[in-house]
Amino acid sequence: MARIEIKGLNKSFGASRALRDLDLVVEDGEFFVLLGRTGAGKTTILRSIAGLEKPDSGMVKIGDHDVGGWTAAQRDVALVLQQYSLYPRLTVRGNLEFPLRSKTRKFTESEIAARVEKAAKTLQITHLMDRKVERLSGGEMQRVSIGRAIVRQPAVFLMDEPLSALDAKLRESLRVELKRLHSDLGATFLFVTHDQVEAMSMGDKIGVLRQGRLVQVGTPSDIYERPLNTFVARSVGSPPMNLINGRMSGGEAQIGAFRLPVSIAGAVERPVTFGVRPENVTLQSGAPVEAKVFDIEDQGVIKVLTLEMGSDRLHVTVPAGTKVGRDEMVRFGWKPDRVLAFDPDSGMNLALA
Amino acid sequence: MAEVKTKGEVIVNRAAIVAVMLALVVMLTPILWITATAFKPRNLATTVPPTVMFEPTLSPFAKLFTKRSQLREPVEQEVYDAAPWWEQLVFDGGEQVVRNKKTGEATPSGFGGRYLNSLIVSIVSTVLAVSMGTITAYGFSRFRVPGEQDWLFFILSTRMLPPIVVAIPMFLMYRAVGLYDTHIGLIILYTAFNLSFAVWIMKGFIDEIPREYEEAALVDGYTRLQAFFKIVLPEALTGIAATAVFCFITAWNEYAFALMMTSRNAQTAPPYIPSQVGSGLSDWTVIASGTFLFLLPVAIFTFLLRNHLLRGMSFGAIRK
Ligand SMILES: Nc1ncnc2c1ncn2[C@@H]1O[C@H](COP(=O)(O)OP(=O)(O)O)[C@@H](O)[C@H]1O
Ligand SMILES: [Mg+2]
């Protein structure tokens, strides 16, 4: 078992900087999810840890060792990719045995058989063992990829968007399985994704990555409730947090002609970007302000309303049973204690600054 | 899977088959002619109209491999009966095999030795060009090589000059360093011809193999070299087969340098055949049998690799 520590990691590809002074700690046994858009540097981080990419500067530690000079083979990590990670000419069994047959490991035949058997059972792929991998479905392939990672019982699992290529249903079930696998193995997992639902539902801890920099690290509720800035605020949650420019004035939020209560301590007169999640806006007949319903999107359990608030648009989620029509005028309010205030220029959360 | 075809597609398909058959007839007729002539007795080889039905004989091959002279009078029955089958075939044609006065050994014609030279030079130069080409292509494909584009262009540029332009200086150099008329000399030449081609073709194939495969092997505890042999090479087999066929054919067919750079010791088969056309009254059956044998290795080689070639000839454009 091992802890991963990254300090001051830099990596450029030609003129483009993929990683900038990146610091990251993944504690032993943690399920850490890195969330970032395409091109944020997620893959580059994993490749640097695995030893497939040589960083320009910075330190990578696995366990107690600085692994900077180690080859990929010596690092004893497992890497699961979105695709292309199975050997196309081998059967499922061949793929599972492959890591165990490396000369650096020296396993006996019976040991190999036992480990492969166990991994296959864990992932419920025993019926596929003699199949060529080309004949597998996407979900089966990813199971085998995970199987090939676990046979070696490595200290660290690196997963590069392993579920992104799968359809929604399969993704959900594999998500659950991966969580379970993590708690059974007790190993350190570093999982990267661009899918915020995946990040929120799987991570013990989430790191939000933006253009090669780590913006914020925290538990899913930290990230959701107390985002460091507007970027993090809009990275999680669906529909995303409403961000509306206005002013703090006399202990109230002033947005155009609208005035709404807030409970932000030590609020001073100043321009502010208010952030409120759609589920924290409520429709009530006696609520303080009125707005027109611009659009309604029925999502089954909930409805997402878009309200027109002067020149701003506000997303609101309401129970599916709520009766509203398009262009209807509704009265709404928000939960004052759930409203965040951000600096309009820097985007920083004023409560955390 | 059952494929459903429309009427139009069926017609196009049939037309294509007819076109291919016509092309095959045009292209295979000379080969059929040569093959037939290689098994004809001499008197049937040049009849007008051509003889189609005949009893095949191996006498052209017997003549091809031996040195012969004209019989002035018919051979005696005892001598004929005592002779091996191939010598009898030569007697049948009104000729005799030249034998060494002291030992009585039959004198070979030189074709066998040249044929062997052709095989040695072509196989060795193909193996060298393909293996060096594959490794070079792998390096260019997988590592950041400073000036990569310039190097690749330089490699390609060696093909832009017709090789025969440098024949004279090469000839002088070869004589000076003692490579003239040696196997190794021709092998170096043909490897050099084919190497740039092999690098370019193999780079195309290796670029197509996702590097994730090898990287997975690296993470799984293998060295770069082990990953290359275990993962990359099997995936590149199709490309290697296609490249090998091209290199082999180039080396096997090469004529000009073989003629100029070699003589008795290392000369290959291609210069031999025209040398026979020029010497007196040509025996076309012998020339045809030599040509037939010359065609054989390429045909066999291509046939053995046909499964790889079908995919390989598209130069990696179509996979699976
Ligand atoms: N081999 C490479 N050559 C050039 N640029 C690269 C290479 N790998 C990554 N990059 C660049 O580095 C940045 C980060 O890439 P990556 O780590 O793959 O992001 P992610 O996995 O988050 O999508 C991107 O801008 C990408 O274009
Ligand atoms: Mg990526």
- Portion of residues within helices of chain B: 55-70%
Please work out how many helical segments of chain A DSSP would assign. Answer: 9
Q: What share of the residues of chain B does DSSP label as strand, in percent?
A: under 5%
What is the beta-strand fraction of chain A? 25-35%
CATH architecture of the largest domain in chain B: Orthogonal Bundle
Chain pair forming the biggest interface? A-B, 26 and 16 residues
Just give the CATH class of the largest domain in chain B. Answer: Mainly Alpha
Instruction: State the end-to-end CA separation of chain A.
Output: 36 Å
Helix content of chain A: 10-25%
User: Over the alpha carbons, how many angstroms does the gyration radius of chain B reach?
Assistant: 25 Å
Ligands present? adenosine-5'-diphosphate, magnesium ion
Unreliable runs of chain A: none
Shape of chain B: globular
Layout: helices, strands, pairs:
The complex is a heterodimer of chains A (353) and B (320).
Chain A: E1 4-13, E2 16-26, E3 31-35, H1 42-50, E4 57-62, E5 65-66, H2 72-75, E6 77-80, H3 92-97, H4 109-122, H5 138-150, E7 156-160, H6 168-185, E8 188-193, H7 196-202, E9 205-210, E10 213-218, H8 220-225, H9 230-235, E11 242-249, E12 252-255, E13 258-261, E14 270-276, E15 281-283, E16 289-298, E17 302-309, E18 312-319, E19 329-334, E20 340-342
Parallel strand pairs in A: 3-8, 3-9, 6-7, 7-8
Antiparallel strand pairs in A: 1-2, 1-4, 4-5, 9-10, 11-12, 11-14, 12-13, 14-20, 15-19, 16-17, 16-19, 17-18
Chain B: H1 7-38, H2 42-45, H3 59-64, E1 68-70, H4 77-82, H5 85-92, E2 95-97, H6 111-142, H7 148-157, H8 167-177, H9 183-208, H10 211-219, H11 224-253, H12 256-261, H13 272-278, H14 284-304, H15 306-312
Antiparallel strand pairs in B: 1-2
Helix pairs in contact in B: 1-14, 6-9, 6-11, 9-11, 10-11, 11-15, 13-14
The structure holds adenosine-5'-diphosphate and magnesium ion (MG).
